[in-house]
Design a protein that fits this description.
The chain has a domain of 55 residues. The protein contains three helices and four strands; from the N terminus they run αββααββ. The strands form two sheets. A two-stranded antiparallel sheet has the order 1-2. Strands 3-4 form a two-stranded antiparallel sheet. A hairpin with a 7-residue loop joins strand 3 and strand 4. The chain is extended, with a radius of gyration of 28 Å. The relative contact order is 0.12.
């Protein structure tokens, strides 16, 4: 943990996007697996109730939480290859009469298989009072 963001950036040169270096300090998207996270150290102790000026809770002192910075590493884990033979979907097996007789291995296999769509996705339906945004045609704006 580091007391300041600058100390953390100095400790890991070339691993993080460093705005201090301008365009030379920016990483390619595939190399951005390290991120600095800001964390609060310890929460302050709760205030004791005090009757002041006719109020139960007096104005407490302005407290600022101490923060620290921690390096977080994230990565993609490559999973096993999908099975070649299509297996029946769980929604179909659930409706059959033998669904209650499935053993633990079959239930585990159903839970681990990827979801497949029932039918292809239909194009976006634009209503009578909607229009696509000129700068972003994938966003619909109500026009009434």
């Amino acid at each position: 943990m580091f007391a300041s963001r600058e100390a953390a950036l100095d400790a890991f040169p070339g691993r993080l996007d460093d705005e201090r270096g301008g365009a030379a300090g920016l990483l390619a998207p595939e190399d951005r697996y390290c991120v600095l996270r800001e964390r609060a150290q310890a929460p302050p102790a709760p205030l004791e109730p005090a009757m002041r000026d006719g109020r139960r809770w007096g104005k407490g002192p302005a407290r600022k939480l101490k923060t620290s910075f921690r390096l977080t590493v994230s990565y993609w884990k490559i999973g096993p290859e999908a099975p070649q033979a299509p297996t029946p979907q769980a929604r179909d097996l659930r409706r059959k009469s033998g669904a209650a007789k499935l053993d633990a291995g079959q239930l585990r296999a159903l839970a681990e298989q990827p979801l497949r769509p029932v039918r292809p996705q239909q194009p976006l339906d634009v209503g009578l009072f909607e229009a696509p945004a000129p700068e972003a045609p994938h966003i619909l704006i109500p026009d009434e």
